[in-house]
Design brief:
Blueprint lengths: L5 H14 L6 H22 L1 H13 L1 H6 L9 H17 L4 H21 L4 H14 L6 H23 L1 H4 L5 H9 L9 H15 L12 H6 L1 H17 L7 H4 L4 H15 L5 H21 L5 E2 L5 H9 L5 E5 L8 E4 H20 L4 H24 L7 H12 L7 E4 L4 H7 L2 E5 L6 H9 L4 E5 L9 H7 L2 E8 L2 E7 L10
Parallel strand pairs: 1-2, 4-5, 4-6
Antiparallel strand pairs: 2-3, 6-8, 7-8
């Protein structure tokens, strides 16, 4: 945690004292609920009650938002709560009718931004969005004197924030400002970027968002966007931050991109509310009927016996997709969220294609516009429900938590002393048993380090095959030389416990 400001760790340390580590996911879920309330308040002031309800509904049903609200991390639920608090205070500051109210809400902005910085330095995006949005709003009243005063105040505020954040190491010994800055600057590089990985992670983020938070943007009007300008500015700055200025190709980029859920929920909620202002019951019935047929198609394609591909090499995925082999399962993992799960690529693409067809039809045939939007919403809700079902229950393609629990029951036996686990599966439970000896990720670039790790280890290995390990890789070949002492499966996901006393990782080609 020392690579981040102190509140990052303290939130979870304090929550561990309050709710016990077994229930620590209550913390991001609580912040998710706070975000939902703040989202309602912000959108209601900007676009009205109908838009606020639509935004909350989108935020609640979107798989990306659901995933964020149970991930033991700050990017998905905690930072958005501070962002929305800052925006709410900013909106009240803009509409304040007295100097006292202006000062009070200006102080509220400062507190929200300061707390956000104490969680993670990427909160600079929020400060940048607030400043840029305000400059855009007062651009017609800007004078040279006002610009100079504003820049002076901004510089003083930035310096004060820098000094306050840097001084936190006097209060929290674990907080090292120099180390944090070094960690942040280590991502500023333009050579050697993994552009394929950036493309893959960015595409995964779009899949997480679902057609429900993307396709309705085709119906957006200038008025809908103007009401939510701060969110559009935030998205634009975030795109520069995560895709241009910093290199997150070797990090969990899909986890960091969770920041886009809240602004898109606000914008799309407003678009939906504005577009459906004069909707009739006939349009609702037509939209639900056609959207329901699309939803049934989405459900059906999940049962076409898709094949499982290993996570590596990534180029094999592109080759399969470009060749038209879409009936494959994509693994979704990353961050400190629940164990990974599989979804059919055919199901994902079908969801986007169906939604796009309905949207384009409504875009160019005005009389069908509202019914088409209802159809898009229906397909989008079905898409997200199937997604969330696999995330939590794995009823279609298999449940990684189910096979993990069975494997942990075996590992709890007395004859199993020490365990190395694949992809960190079950690390918390293994630590509680006193048996965790390490972890490994079946990544080609880590092979040499893992040969050394395996050669020095004489215990058991727990492998939940999620994501699937390439049969031709070093890892698969090594475990083929081991004794399989336990196996179980759920759908296409298997779990094995291996014992390898006579296996030599250096003999594996």
């Amino acid at each position: 945690m020392s690579a981040h400001p102190p509140l990052y760790e303290l939130i979870f340390r304090w929550s561990g004292y309050l709710v016990d580590a077994d229930y620590v996911r209550i913390v991001p879920l609580t912040f998710g609920l706070i975000s939902a309330v703040l989202l309602y308040l912000v959108v209601r002031r900007r676009a009205g009650v109908r838009a606020a309800y639509a935004a909350i509904a989108l935020y609640t049903v979107c798989a990306y938002g659901v995933y964020a609200s149970v991930m033991v991390d700050v990017d998905g639920a905690i930072l958005p709560a501070f962002f929305l608090a800052a925006v709410y205070a900013y909106d009240r500051f803009r509409s304040a009718e007295s100097s006292r109210a202006s000062f009070a809400w200006g102080f509220g902005i400062a507190v929200a931004v300061f707390l956000g910085f104490l969680v993670k330095l990427s909160f600079v995006l929020v400060l940048g969005a607030l400043i840029l949005d305000y400059v855009i709003e007062v651009r017609h009243r800007l004078t040279r004197a006002l610009i100079i005063r504003s820049l002076t105040v901004a510089a003083m505020c930035a310096l004060a924030a820098f000094v306050i954040v840097a001084s936190m190491q006097l209060l929290f010994s674990i907080f090292n400002f120099g180390e944090i800055m070094a960690h942040a600057l280590s991502y500023v590089r333009f050579e050697g970027r993994g552009y394929l990985q950036i493309l893959v992670q960015g595409t995964k983020a779009m899949f997480y968002l679902s057609p429900l938070l993307l396709v309705p943007l085709l119906f957006a009007s200038k008025e809908s966007l103007a009401k939510n300008r701060i969110f559009a500015v935030y998205l634009g700055l975030g795109a520069l931050f995560y895709f241009v200025i910093f290199d997150f190709s070797q990090a969990a980029l899909d986890k960091y991109l969770m920041f886009i859920v809240v602004p898109l929920a606000a914008i799309v909620g407003t678009v939906i509310a504005d577009s459906m202002r004069d909707i009739s019951s006939r349009q609702v019935v037509s939209g639900v009927l056609f959207g329901g047929i699309g939803a049934l198609v989405l459900l059906a394609v999940n049962f076409l016996s898709p094949s499982v591909m290993p996570l590596y090499p990534k180029t094999a995925w592109l080759s399969a997709i470009l060749s038209g082999n879409w009936n494959i399962l994509l693994p979704f993992t990353g961050g400190n969220g629940p164990l990974g799960f599989y979804l059919s690529f055919l199901f994902i693409t079908a969801g986007f294609i169906l939604s796009a067809v309905f949207a384009v039809y409504g875009k160019y045939i005005p009389r069908a516009r509202t019914a088409a939007l209802v159809a898009v919403i229906t397909v989008g809700v079905a898409y997200n429900c199937i997604w969330v079902n696999e995330l939590f229950f794995g009823r279609i393609n298999g449940s990684a938590p189910a096979v993990l629990q069975s494997a942990l029951s075996y590992v709890a036996r007395d004859e199993v002393k020490r365990v190395i686990t694949h992809a960190d599966a079950g690390s918390y439970e293994l630590s509680g048993m006193g048996k965790r000896a390490g972890r490994f990720y079946a990544v080609p670039g880590y092979e040499e380090a893992h040969r050394e790790l395996f050669a020095a280890f004489d215990g058991h290995y727990l492998v939940v095959d999620m994501p699937h390990i390439n049969e031709g890789s070093f890892y698969s070949k090594f475990f083929s030389t081991c004794e399989t002492v336990f196996s179980t499966s759920s759908g296409v996901i298997a779990a094995h416990v291996y014992y390898c006393p006579d296996s030599d990782p250096y003999a594996i080609p």
